[in-house]
Amino acid sequence: MFGIADYGAFVAAIVLFLAIPGPGNLALITSTGKGGIRGGLAATLGVIAGDQVLMWMAVAGVAALLAAYPTAFHAVQWLGAAYLAWLGARMLLAKPGAAPILNIRPRQFFRQAMFITLLNPKAIVFYMAFFPLFVDPARHQGFRTFAFMALTIAVLTFLYGLAATLLTHFLAERLRANPRISQTLEKLAGVFLIAFGIKLAVSR
User: Fold this and answer.
1) Whose CA is closest to 148, among 9, 10, 17, 47?
2) pLDDT tens for residues 161-203?
3) Which of 23, 2, 21, 16 is nearest to 130 (CA)?
4) What integer is the mean pLDDT of 108-136?
5) What is the pLDDT of residues 33-83, one digit of tens each?
6) Alpha-carbon separation of residue 116 from 31, 32, 51 (angstroms)
7) Where are the domains of the chain?
């Protein structure tokens, strides 16, 4: 299909990768908890936008450029780590009853999720290594093949984000009845964000 080898396996692999815990998933969950369904969907669109940029950068060979200039790669890596750690620290230091760390405007949720996605340069390398696994050299159609792969990832990400948003919103409505649990979960989210930041900074 459009030069993609084993399209079913391609879809299954993307769904599996979406379900792996990471900063993008955490941003989606916390955005839903603070901004409801609109916040969660805005964050989902932010993740999609960031992914699309990274995918087309990978297709354009940016991964090879980063490999040739490791200093640039690590600079972006450290920038992403600092951003995640900053968000996590704000959550940990927030006082009970304080204004939400994540802005309640959907536009802000979108922007934050997009930045979290974009500031992970290893995603470019991942796409650079992942795409060739499912490209059929005999039936490859150039731009159409990559465009269809990118569209498939965007649709699957939206469906996954919608499901996660609805589930998180359902649970959040029940957690709001107990402020102590909500505060504990926010602190836990902050710890995870800092941990993701440290992992991104030290990984090579």
Assistant:
1) 10
2) 999 899 888 877 665 555 565 566 667 767 777 776 776 666 6
3) 16
4) 78
5) 778 888 889 999 999 999 999 888 888 876 676 667 777 767 766 776 777
6) 13, 16, 10
7) 7-202
pTM score? 0.73
Q: What's the confidence (pLDDT) of residue 93?
A: 76
The tokens describing 79, both together, are 């920038």
The whole-angstrom separation of Cα 48 and Cα 42 is 10
Whole-number Å distance between alpha carbons of 18 and 12: 10
CA 94 – CA 154 distance, rounded (Å):
34
- What does the buried/exposed string (b/e) look like for 103-116 if buried means 16 or more CB atoms within 10 Å of the residue's CB? beebebbbbbbbbb
Least Cα distance to 10 among 122, 128, 125, 133 occurs for 133
Beta carbons within 8 Å of 71's beta carbon, 6+ residues apart: none
**Are 41 and 162 in contact, with CB atoms under 8 Å apart?**
yes
State the sign of the Cα–Cα–Cα–Cα dihedral 49, 51, 54, 60.
negative
Q: How far apart are CA 66 and CA 73, in angstroms?
A: 5
Predicted local distance difference test score (pLDDT) of residue 178: 55
